[in-house]
């Protein structure tokens, strides 16, 4: 048996706030979720896999675009021509009522209904595979779904498809088919194909319990490599191998400016750092400043000029191997543009406002909007909010001048 496990394709992710970049780069960014899945289908065909599992969030939003749907159908048709079945479930992003075979999809695509059900297939070598799963019919599924999964019975291989999150034992957070690892293991399945968490990870080795992550990261918090898992049997054991496919990778680079650095030498340094990266990278520079940094350099960093010059430099060459989309000034920053604001006063109020408690408070009020709750749950958010606020305050000051 050989199959591909993927999830969270998030086709047609909007990549908001990134459209101010050269058309070539924007095209690449906007197409990336499509390209990543196309590469998975290429791999399925080249590897002659027995089937593909797609565990929820095929589309980025519940009202997905017709273009995204058309793209997905065409990719499934490529697999149909090769007699490769697709088993899919919808997740919290593309939840929908599933009552019968969805007519736009070719016959090789098997969609799980809103209630837990099991589908079986027989492989070329006569081994049988039972696959159990369900589709989200609404944005939240607060009830445990795993209790509805049958224990492994007579099939040679039993696979569970579960788009969900490990239970936090907190009804305010457990919105996505909460489960525990022991509960999964009790079912004696051969493989648990998870979805929902966007960072690829193996939760358990025997049997394998795997989050494949999304095949294309959508922003800086989904950095590093993204791809799918190729799962193969070797006698009665399964192995899962991570295969990267993401056409763009998000990355953060720390740069420390401790000396009296000129603007030109700074730009040169950042260009070198970007060029040293392999593959196409979308780079956010985190520039750490100290008081010794030249005052003019600080101003140009803070008002966006340095980032613009970096981008101009790459645009002039026209050879895009990476793109600096953001430049953050971080701790040690003297907040150069906030000349009228007492630093001590800022630090004190920032501490009051930008802390995890304040964010949780906000989360409670906004939690009914699932997509907002997802964003707010991100641990790096506090730091990011604090930084954005300092930038905004700085911009105000700049405008007055
Ligand atoms: Mn997702």
TrEMBL record:
It comes from the Bacteria. Keywords: Exonuclease, Hydrolase, Nuclease. SUPFAM superfamilies: Metallo-dependent phosphatases. Residues 1-199 form the Calcineurin-like phosphoesterase domain. GO terms for molecular function: exonuclease activity. This is DNA repair exonuclease.
């Amino acid at each position: 048996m050989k199959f591909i496990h993927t999830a969270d394709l998030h086709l047609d992710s909007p990549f908001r706030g990134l459209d101010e970049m050269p058309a070539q780069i924007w095209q690449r960014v906007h197409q990336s979720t499509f390209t990543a899945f196309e590469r998975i289908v290429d791999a399925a065909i080249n590897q002659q896999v027995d089937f593909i599992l797609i565990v929820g969030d095929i589309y980025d939003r519940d009202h997905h675009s017709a273009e995204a749907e058309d793209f997905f159908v065409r990719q499934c048709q490529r697999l149909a021509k090769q007699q490769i079945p697709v088993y899919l479930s919808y997740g919290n992003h593309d939840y929908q009522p599933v009552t019968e075979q969805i007519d736009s999809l070719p016959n090789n695509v098997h969609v799980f209904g809103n209630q837990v059900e099991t589908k079986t297939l027989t492989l070329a070598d006569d081994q049988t595979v039972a696959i159990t799963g369900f589709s989200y019919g609404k944005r939240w599924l607060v009830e445990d779904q795993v209790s509805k999964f049958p224990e492994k019975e007579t099939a040679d291989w039993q696979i569970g498809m579960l788009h969900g999150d490990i239970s936090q034992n907190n009804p305010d957070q457990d919105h996505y088919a909460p489960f525990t690892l022991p509960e999964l293991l009790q079912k004696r399945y051969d493989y648990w194909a998870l979805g929902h968490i966007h960072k690829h990870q193996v939760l358990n080795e025997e049997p394998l319990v795997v989050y494949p992550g999304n095949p294309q990261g959508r922003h800086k918090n989904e950095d590093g490599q993204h791809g799918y898992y190729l799962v193969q049997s070797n006698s009665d054991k399964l192995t899962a191998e991570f295969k990267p496919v993401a056409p763009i990778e998000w990355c953060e680079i720390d740069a420390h400016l401790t000396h009296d650095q000129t603007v030109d030498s700074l730009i040169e340094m950042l260009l070198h750092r970007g060029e040293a990266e392999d593959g196409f990278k979308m780079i956010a520079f985190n520039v750490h400043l100290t008081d010794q940094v030249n005052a003019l350099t600080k101003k140009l960093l803070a008002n966006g000029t340095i980032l613009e010059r970096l981008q101009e430099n790459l645009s002039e060459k026209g050879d895009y191997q990476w793109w600096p989309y953001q430049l953050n000034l971080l701790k040690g920053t003297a907040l150069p543009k906030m000349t009228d604001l007492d630093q001590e006063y800022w630090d004190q109020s920032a501490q009051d406002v930008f802390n995890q408690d304040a964010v949780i408070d906000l989360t409670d009020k906004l939690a009914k909007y699932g997509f907002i709750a997802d964003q707010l749950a991100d641990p790096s958010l506090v730091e990011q909010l604090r930084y954005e606020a300092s930038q905004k305050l700085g911009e105000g000051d700049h405008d007055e001048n």
